[in-house]
C-alpha cells in the first residue's frame, strides 16, 4: 500500500516538474527557493521560532547568538543536503555519521605525518582531498550495493554504519588525535568578512547543489528515479549510475562535514564525531519537505530544516530547559512535519 | 501468479522451504565457528563461558525476536535501543520494591512506547521508519530526563539484582531462562497461531491482506507492542545485570538487532522469516566478540575491541550479498 501511494505521489511530482519545465518562467533562485519553502510551511515555522526567541530568549538579537547557531548548524545542514538527495532517489543513508568519523580521522593522520612535516602545504591539501575522497568512495560502495545488488538501502548502508566507525577507531586505536594546525582549523573556526567559514561552505554547497538539481540532467534524472524507478529506467534514464552518483555525493558531503567537525574541535575523535548525525540529517531533510517516497529534492528546504531543528534546541537550551527535553521536542516535530506533509499530499 | 495465491502460498510451502534453507546456512556457519573456537580455545566450551555468553546476549536476542516480527510485516522498529535505556532507568527507580514489581513495570514501559509507535503507524499512517525514529529520540530523551542525565543506581537490598545475576537451580542464569521462554513464546506465536500467519500475510502483501478481511491494523498493533515489550524486558535485564539504569546504553542496538534478523535470513521486504534463524543470527554475531576476546587472551595477536564492528559489518556484507545474488538469480529465472 505504501509503495502504491509512493508511485502516485511520484507521478504527481514528475508532472509538476514537466509543467515547470514547459512554462520556463524566468524566476530567480531566491524566488524559487521562497516558493519551495512556502509550500511546506517550514519557513513559517522558522519565522515563528525567531519571533518567539526575540520575545522570550535573553540576548537573542546579538551577533554572538547568530555565530553560535551558524557554527553548530553547518555540519547538520551539509549532511542533510546529501541525505535529501538520497531520500529523493527513494533511499536512505545510515552511514553518514560513520563516514564523518572516518574522514575526520584520516585528515589529521595525513597532515600530522612526517611527509606533511616536510611539505606542509602539500600535506594539508592531500589531507583534505584524501579524507573527502575516502568518504566519497565509501558512498560509492553504498550506491554499488544498492543499485547493482539491489540490497535495500537501509541494510546496505547499515554495513558501513557498523564498520565505518570501526575502521576509524582501529586507525586511531580509539584515541583522540589532537593537533595544532591553524590552516586546517580555519575551516572550523575561521571567519571571512566576519562570517564563520563553515557557514559560507554550507551556503555555497547548498546553492550550487540546488542549482544542479534544478538545471542539470542529473537533477532531472534523480527526481525521475526517485519518483518511479522502473518507469524512469524504461524511459532510458541510467538509474543505476544516478543512484551510485547520489550515494557518492552524500558520502562526499559527509566527508566535508567530518572535516569541519574535526576542525572545530582541533581534535579528531573517532568515537564521537558524527555520532547520531544520521538521525539529525534525516530529521532536517524531512522537516525541509523531502518526501520519503522519493521524487522531490528540496535542497534549501534541508538547510532550513536543519536551521529549525537547531533553533528549537537553542531555544530550549537558552531558556534553561533540560537538554534531553529537546530530543522529545525533536521527535514531536518529525511526526508533525511528516503528518502535515501527508495531509497536504492527500488533498 | 496472482496476488491471492501469493498470499496463500507464502505462509505455507514457500516460506518453510526458504526458512529451512536459511536456518541451515546459519546453522552451518555457527557449527563451523563453534568447532574452530572449541579446538583453538580451551575454555570456549566451558560452562562458565557458555552461560556468561548466553546471559549477556539474551538482551540482544530479545530485541532481535521482536524485530523479526516487525520486519516480517515489512516494517522496522528503530526505537528498541532507546526503549531498553528508558526501561532500565525506570526499573532502576522502582528496584527497591523487588523484581516482582520491576519486571512488570519494565515490560509496561515497552508496551507503552510500542503502543505509541503502533498508533502513529496505524492511525496517522506514518511509515514505520519515521514513526519509530521519532520514538528513538523521544524515548532516549525521556530516559535522560527521568535519570537526570546520569546512571541510576539500583537497590541491592531487594531481590532485584537476583534477576540479572542469579541462576535457576544454581545453573542457568535467569536472563537465559527468560530468553528461552520468550523464544518459545515467539516461536509458538509465529508457527502455531493465526497471529503469525497474519503477520506473514501482511508482509507479503498488505493491500491483499486487507482485501481478504484480515485485521491489518490490529496485527500491526500487536507486532509493535510485542517488540516494545521485549525491549522493555531487555531493559530490566540490563539494569538488573549491571546494577544500574543506564540512559545512554542501547545506542545502536536496534541496528544490531536488524543485522541479527537479516543474518538469520529474514527478508526486509517482509512476508518471510524465521524465529529460530533470528536466534541463531543473534548468537552468530555475538560469537564474533566472544572469539575476539579469546584470541586476545591467547596473546599471539592483539585485536582491539574496535575490530569487532569491522568484522560484524563485513559479516553482514557477505550475508546480504549472498542473499541478493540468490534472490536476483531466482528473479532471472
What does the radius of gyration of chain A come to?
Answer: 20 Å
Fourth CATH level, the homologous superfamily of chain B: ABC transporter involved in vitamin B12 uptake, BtuC
Tell me the number of structural domains of chain B.
Answer: 1
Assign the CATH architecture of chain A: Orthogonal Bundle
Structural class of chain B: mainly alpha
Q: How many strands appear in the DSSP assignment of chain B?
A: 4
Most extensive chain interface and residues per partner: A-B, 48 and 51 residues
Which H/E pattern describes the elements of chain B? HHHHHEHEEHHHHEHHH
In CATH, the topology of chain A is named ABC transporter involved in vitamin B12 uptake, BtuC
Please give the radius of gyration of chain B in angstroms.
Answer: 20 Å
What distance separates the N and C termini of chain B? 14 Å
> Helix fraction of chain A?
over 70%
CATH topology title of chain B: ABC transporter involved in vitamin B12 uptake, BtuC
Oligomer, anyone? heterodimer
User: How large is the count of helical segments of chain B?
Assistant: 13
Give a brief rundown of this model:
The complex is a heterodimer of chains A (347) and B (333). With 347 residues, chain A is mainly α.
Would you kindly provide a written description of the structure presented here, covering whatever features stand out?
- The complex is a heterodimer of chains A (347) and B (333).
- Chain A has 347 residues and is mainly α.
- Chain A has one domain (30-346): ABC transporter involved in vitamin B12 uptake, BtuC.
- In chain A, 78% of the residues lie in helices and 2% in strands.
- In chain A, the strands form two sheets. In chain A, strands 1-4 form a two-stranded antiparallel ribbon. Chain A has a two-stranded antiparallel ribbon with strand order 2-3.
- In chain A, a hairpin with a 2-residue loop joins strand 2 and strand 3.
- In chain A, helix 4 (63-88) packs antiparallel against helix 13 and helix 4 crosses helix 14.
- Chain A is globular and about 55 Å long.
- Residues 1-27 of chain A have low confidence and may be disordered.
- Chain B is an all-alpha fold and 333 residues long.
- Chain B has a single domain (3-332), classed as ABC transporter involved in vitamin B12 uptake, BtuC (Orthogonal Bundle).
- Chain B has helices at residues 3-40, 47-72, 80-93, 99-122, 128-147, 160-165, 174-192, 194-204, 206-211, 216-242, 253-263, 275-298, 307-332, and strands at 152-153, 167-168, 172-173, 244-245.
- In chain B, strands 1-4 form a two-stranded antiparallel sheet. In chain B, strands 2-3 form a two-stranded antiparallel ribbon.
- In chain B, a hairpin with a 3-residue loop joins strand 2 (167-168) and strand 3 (172-173).
- At the A-B interface, helix 8, helix 14 and helix 16 of A face helix 5, helix 9, helix 11 and helix 13 of B.
Amino acid at each position: 500500500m505504501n509503495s502504491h501511494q509512493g508511485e502516485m505521489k511520484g507521478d504527481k511530482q514528475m508532472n509538476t516538474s514537466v509543467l515547470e519545465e514547459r512554462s520556463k518562467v524566468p524566476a530567480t533562485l531566491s524566488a524559487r527557493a521562497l516558493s519551495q519553502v512556502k509550500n511546506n510551511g517550514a519557513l513559517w515555522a522558522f519565522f515563528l521560532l525567531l519571533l518567539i526567541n526575540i520575545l522570550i530568549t535573553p540576548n537573542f538579537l546579538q551577533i554572538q547568538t547568530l555565530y553560535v547557531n551558524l557554527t553548530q548548524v553547518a555540519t547538520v545542514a551539509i549532511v542533510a543536503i546529501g541525505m535529501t538527495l538520497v531520500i529523493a532517489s527513494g533511499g536512505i543513508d545510515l552511514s553518514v555519521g560513520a563516514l564523518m568519523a572516518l574522514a575526520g580521522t584520516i585528515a589529521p593522520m595525513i597532515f600530522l605525518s612526517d611527509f606533511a612535516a616536510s611539505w606542509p602545504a602539500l600535506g594539508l591539501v592531500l589531507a583534505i582531498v584524501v579524507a573527502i575522497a575516502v568518504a566519497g568512495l565509501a558512498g560509492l560502495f553504498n550506491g554499488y550495493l544498492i543499485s547493482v545488488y539491489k540490497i535495500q538501502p537501509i541494510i546496505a548502508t547499515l554495513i558501513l554504519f557498523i564498520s565505518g566507525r570501526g575502521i576509524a577507531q582501529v586507525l586511531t586505536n580509539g584515541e583522540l588525535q589532537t593537533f595544532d594546525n591553524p590552516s586546517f582549523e580555519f575551516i572550523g573556526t575561521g571567519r571571512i568578512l566576519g562570517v564563520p567559514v563553515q557557514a559560507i561552505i554550507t551556503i555555497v554547497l547548498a546553492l550550487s547543489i540546488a542549482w544542479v538539481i534544478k538545471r542539470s540532467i542529473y537533477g532531472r534524472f534523480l527526481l525521475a528515479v526517485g519518483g518511479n524507478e522502473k518507469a524512469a529506467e524504461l524511459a532510458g534514464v541510467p538509474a543505476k549510475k544516478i543512484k551510485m552518483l547520489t550515494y557518492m555525493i552524500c558520502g562526499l558531503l559527509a566527508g566535508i562535514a567530518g572535516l569541519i567537525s574535526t576542525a572545530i574541535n582541533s581534535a579528531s575523535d573517532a568515537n564521537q564525531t558524527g555520532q547520531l548525525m544520521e538521525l539529525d540529517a534525516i530529521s532536517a531533510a524531512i522537516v525541509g519537505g523531502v518526501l520519503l517516497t522519493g521524487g522531490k529534492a528540496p535542497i534549501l528546504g534541508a538547510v532550513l530544516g536543519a536551521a529549525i531543528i537547531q533553533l528549537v534546541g537553542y531555544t530550549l537550551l537558552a531558556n534553561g530547559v533540560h537538554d534531553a527535553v529537546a530530543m522529545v521536542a525533536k521527535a514531536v516535530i518529525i511526526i508533525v512535519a511528516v503528518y502535515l506533509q501527508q495531509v497536504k499530499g492527500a488533498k | 501468479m496472482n496476488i491471492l495465491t501469493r498470499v496463500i502460498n507464502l505462509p505455507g510451502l514457500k516460506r518453510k522451504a526458504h526458512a529451512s534453507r536459511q536456518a541451515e546456512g546459519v546453522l552451518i556457519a555457527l557449527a563451523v565457528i563453534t568447532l574452530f573456537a572449541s579446538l583453538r580455545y580451551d575454555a570456549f566450551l566451558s560452562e562458565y563461558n557458555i552461560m556468561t555468553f548466553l546471559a549477556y546476549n539474551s538482551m540482544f536476542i530479545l530485541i532481535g525476536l521482536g524485530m523479526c516480527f516487525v520486519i516480517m510485516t515489512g516494517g522496522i522498529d528503530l526505537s528498541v535501543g532507546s526503549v531498553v535505556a528508558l526501561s532500565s532507568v525506570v526499573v532502576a527507580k522502582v528496584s527497591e520494591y523487588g523484581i516482582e514489581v520491576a519486571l512488570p513495570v519494565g515490560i509496561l514501559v515497552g508496551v507503552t512506547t510500542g503502543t505509541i509507535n503502533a498508533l502513529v503507524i496505524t492511525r496517522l499512517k506514518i511509515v514505520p521508519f519515521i514513526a519509530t525514529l521519532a520514538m528513538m529520540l523521544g524515548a532516549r530523551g525521556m530516559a535522560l530526563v527521568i535519570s537526570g542525565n546520569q546512571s541510576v543506581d539500583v537497590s541491592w537490598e531487594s531481590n532485584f539484582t537476583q534477576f540479572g545475576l542469579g541462576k535457576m537451580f544454581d545453573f542457568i542464569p535467569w536472563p537465559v531462562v527468560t530468553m528461552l521462554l520468550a523464544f518459545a513464546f515467539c516461536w509458538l506465536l509465529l508457527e502455531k497461531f493465526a497471529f503469525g500467519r497474519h503477520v506473514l500475510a501482511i508482509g507479503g502483501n498488505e493491500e491483499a491482506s486487507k482485501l481478504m478481511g484480515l485485521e491489518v491494523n490490529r496485527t500491526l498493533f500487536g507486532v509493535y507492542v510485542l517488540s516494545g515489550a521485549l525491549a522493555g524486558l531487555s531493559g530490566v535485564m540490563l539494569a538488573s545485570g549491571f546494577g544500574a539504569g543506564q540512559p545512554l546504553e542501547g545506542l545502536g542496538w536496534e541496528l544490531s538487532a536488524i543485522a541479527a534478523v537479516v543474518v538469520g535470513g529474514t527478508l526486509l521486504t517482509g512476508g518471510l522469516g524465521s524465529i529460530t534463524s533470528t536466534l541463531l543470527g543473534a548468537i552468530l554475531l555475538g560469537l564474533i566478540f566472544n572469539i575476539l576476546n579469546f584470541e586476545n587472551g591467547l596473546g599471539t595477536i592483539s585485536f582491539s575491541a574496535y575490530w569487532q564492528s569491522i568484522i560484524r559489518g563485513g559479516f553482514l556484507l557477505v550475508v546480504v550479498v549472498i542473499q541478493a545474488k540468490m534472490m536476483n538469480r531466482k528473479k532471472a529465472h
